Structures
1.
Amino acid sequence: MGQTQTRQHKRRNCQKRVTLSSRTSRSASGHTNAHEVTVRARLETHHRAVCLHLLELLRRTAVHGESNSVLIVGPRGSGKTMLLGCVLRELMSLREVQKNVLLVELNGLLQTDDKIALKEITRQLHLENVVGDKVFGSFAENLAFLLEALKKGDKSSSRPVLFVLDEFDLFAHHKNQTLLYNLLDVSQSAQTPVAVVGLTCRLDVLELLEKRVKSRFSHRQIHLFSSLSFGQYVDVVRAQLSLPPDFPDPKFSDEWNHSKLCEDKTVEEILRRNFNGSKDFRSLHSLLFLAVSRVSVSHSTLREADLIEACRLISADSKANVLHGLSILELCLIIAMKHLNDTYDGEPFNFQMVHNEFKKFIQRKSHSIHKFEKPVVMKAFEHLLQLELVRPVDSGVCKVQREYQLMRLMLEHGQVMEALQKYPQCPTDVKQWALSAFG
Ligand SMILES: Nc1ncnc2c1ncn2[C@@H]1O[C@H](COP(=O)(O)OP(=O)(O)OP(=O)(O)O)[C@@H](O)[C@H]1O
Ligand SMILES: [Mg+2]
């Protein structure tokens, strides 16, 4: 019996998810045109339908007093916050909504427990004075009091409240999931019109909810996934780089907007690499931001070189950067390790082997490097260990003396060579030693 019920319940949920798309198309054709136009202008195609669906859902709460709950699920940077922001702006621009709706925004990273969350709800609803020093028996009592207090102004109808829970999954870690339970419970009952909108990047978010919480959720989910093709991605780059029509200098903006930058082969390659790495707009923005920040009065157009430099800065290897700050002795040890890696085909080495390799170099080839005492070399080696450029093979309890402990170099051949090229005033014999095939 119980199983049949669960299955029926699941089927109902699935049906709800399927109807999402049909409802979306209905709302796309049936809803006020002015809103669609603005929303359309702001969002690219695959977010549009979702945006209109969410707008319609929240409008039903705000105007008709229908309670609702919905989850927006998508990876980081997929535009969840942007989507909701856009929808809320649209919603608040409706005259019948403006004065009526109350918005409460919570974030799982800030409201780390339900007590803090409740305080924040009270603050955002401007009910601190009403609550005063009252002591409540339970969370539910407190929330009910708050929602009741909202009714006082006009007894005939209560004001709809939109609860936005960013990082929704973090609220599931609160004790007994009290906040989620109570909010979703209110959204299911006819007491006060409430819409609960959760934003999360966890696909499995429903698995985190307790049974009693899950059963109170409407199971409406909006999934945001980037299905952009490379062509569309380049269009977005073009759009993001263009100056708006109301730019004060039309001649300049005309020239700027007609730039053929995106057609350049190198630029296309950079964009493709970025696109293949991650399609999210956050990383694209940081790339374009770095490129645009190189524009100045003396060079007022965006050039291919700016994007190449931005790409270089963004993909700069943090480990290779650490190498620039090393002393010559530490660098020599890295080279010795590189040679050991070449000789022994990547097998782990110990300090003694590195020291021997280094001594061989000093005796045979070097004129510019001092002879260092062993403890000094050991100190340098330990510094490399601290920087995690070398790591012990066995990180467990080690009974071997430090000198004989097996280590691995955490750098690639290319990283070492690149760092050497850029190292300021690197002695020539050290460079040659690094270039030579075998130590
Ligand atoms: N479809 C899109 N078109 C244009 N820009 C977008 C799009 N999606 C996201 N962005 C941009 O990407 C950036 C990140 O988006 P947003 O903050 O909405 O992501 P998020 O899903 O909320 O991420 P997080 O999970 O980290 O909160 C924003 O600057 C936003 O303007
Ligand atoms: Mg966000």
2.
Amino acid sequence: MTSSRNMGQPTQDKNQPKKGSYTPAPGALTYNAYLKVNELKQLQICQSDPAHHDEPLFIIIHQAYELWFKLILHELDEVFAMMAAQRVRKATFFMRRVNEIMKLLAHQIHILETMSPRDFLGFRYNLSPASGFGSSQFREIEFMSGLRYPELLEHFSGDPSYETLKKRMEQPSLGEAFYTLLAKKGFKLAEAGESAGEAEIEQAQNKRVQEIAKLYTDEETYGDLHDLAEAFVEFDELLFLWRANHVIVVERMIGFKRGTGGSEGVGYLQTTLSKRCFPDLWKVRTVLEQPEGGAGPQSQSPPGKGGGCPFH
Ligand code: HEM
């Protein structure tokens, strides 16, 4: 409807929201309701009394980690399902999402360095004996990735998460599921028998690694499987990066004090840096040999055209 007084401009319909503003209809789903923002905001309970200014930072960063851990577990379940269905590209697709989350997690820890070591001491002892050591979701991720230590499972006996962790420990790991997939694609993967000694275990690994090296020497044939293997290696690298960043932040915050969980602290955390989820995929690097005809595609110039990379 127009009128002569507003020079032909359409008048504002009273039932329509004003330009640039939006009022949801009564009962419509809102952002806050969908994401349970009000409930989320109730979940930060300080142990210090009076509450220390920095404790909300400490709580929120850990809660953010736990939310991302939850999503990682959800995505890893999908990676397993896709591998079982031999949908290699889809398995890689979800593994890449996991890796993007891991990149964020590796760096997020540094936010804690905006807290001074002395301020941390203002509430640290209120947290004892709770510790990241008791993060059941972190252990689930480790168990699924093949890092399985019965003593870590026992740490959770009596905890509501025990049964889930036990199930994760009994299920095939990512590496085992990947080998089942490779076997279906014709790979012959040696395995040492149950009673094998160290020498036999090493021999079987060496044979396995030689077989897996085909993923890297014949990328044309095994492109999709190669990309999935590399996504696993990247995951392992990012887990290491998280551990390395965590341990240096811990040293910066508490030096060589013992952990609230009772471990030696930095000394214990340093022993975890050598953990690898996919040792065979790492070992492949050592056995790979220089390709015939040079270091890479650029150096393979047509005959008689000189060739060779100018930077080497
Ligand atoms: C001021 C910051 C932090 C300090 C001083 C700290 C300290 C420690 C210490 C000393 C341990 C060894 C276990 C113990 O005796 O308590 C540990 C383990 C652990 N922390 Fe932290 N931490 C910090 C932040 C974080 C954050 C933000 C996370 C994120 C989830 C986290 C997750 C873990 C995990 C998963 C472990 C077990 C590692 C393993 O056993 O491989 N920590 N932490």
